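Lecture notes, part 5. Sequence design as translation. It can be helpful to think of inverse folding as translation between two languages: the language of shapes and the language of residues. The source text, in structure tokens, appears below.
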């Protein structure tokens, strides 16, 4: 688990319920990714979600819907629980 923050910096066009997933996997090829959090947004701003379950080594953002927009720019920050060295 942990938390992830998504900062929507710009939207080209109009986004209605644009959606992006935060996914993790144990390999860089993302052959079997698990969805850890889902963000749905329609406006510029900051959003927070808790990540569920065990988070694997690699993380990525996966856009599932532009919500009618032609483009958007986001920044994501993840804080993963249980990281040890």
């Amino acid at each position: 688990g942990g938390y992830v923050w998504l900062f929507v910096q710009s939207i080209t066009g109009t986004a209605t319920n644009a959606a992006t997933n935060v996914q993790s996997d144990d390999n860089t090829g993302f052959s079997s990714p698990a969805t850890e959090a889902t963000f749905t947004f329609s406006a510029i701003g900051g959003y927070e979600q808790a990540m569920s379950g065990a988070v694997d080594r690699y993380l990525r953002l996966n856009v599932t819907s532009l919500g009618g927009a032609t483009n958007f720019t986001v920044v994501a920050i993840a804080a993963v629980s249980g990281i040890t060295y």
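The translated text above is only one of many valid answers, since several sequences can fold into similar shapes. The two ends are 17 Å apart (CA to CA).
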